[in-house]
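Narrative of accomplishments. A recurring question from our advisory board has been how the design workflow behaves on a single, concrete structure rather than in aggregate. To address it, we present the structure tokens for one chain from the evaluation set, followed by the sequence designed for it. No filtering or post-editing was applied between the two.
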């Protein structure tokens, strides 16, 4: 059974940093795309960042570009999201997602759609106080 478990959420002041981590079990995703999405209260799920398998090509939402960094450790089957210069509008539940698709630098930008991911974590709350 595949499981994705997020950790690292919490309460932080605006301008601060948090690092989210997602640990996958039950299947190796080293060759597959993984991503982070978020959902704020009263809003729909929003793409945040994605990373390809072996190449580790990345793609970001415009709203987080330059502030967030997605990375992965294929040996540990984990994907992290380093969030810097946090703003109140970053407040949301953050979800880790894994796909069975192989993507590369040419196609990573297509992984902004939730339906392209096949496994999801339970989410971790990030609250940024202003």
């Amino acid at each position: 059974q595949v499981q994705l478990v997020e950790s690292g959420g919490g309460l932080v002041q605006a301008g601060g940093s948090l690092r989210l981590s997602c640990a996958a079990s039950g299947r190796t995703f080293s060759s597959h795309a993984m991503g982070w999405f978020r959902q704020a209260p009263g809003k729909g799920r929003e793409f945040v960042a994605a990373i390809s398998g072996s190449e580790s090509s990345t793609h970001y939402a415009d709203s987080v570009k330059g502030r967030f960094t997605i990375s992965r450790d294929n040996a540990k089957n984990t994907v992290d999201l380093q969030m810097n210069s946090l703003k109140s509008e970053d407040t949301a539940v953050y979800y880790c997602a894994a796909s069975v698709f192989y993507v590369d630098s040419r196609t990573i930008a297509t992984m902004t759609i939730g339906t392209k991911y096949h496994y999801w974590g339970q989410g971790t709350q990030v609250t940024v106080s202003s």
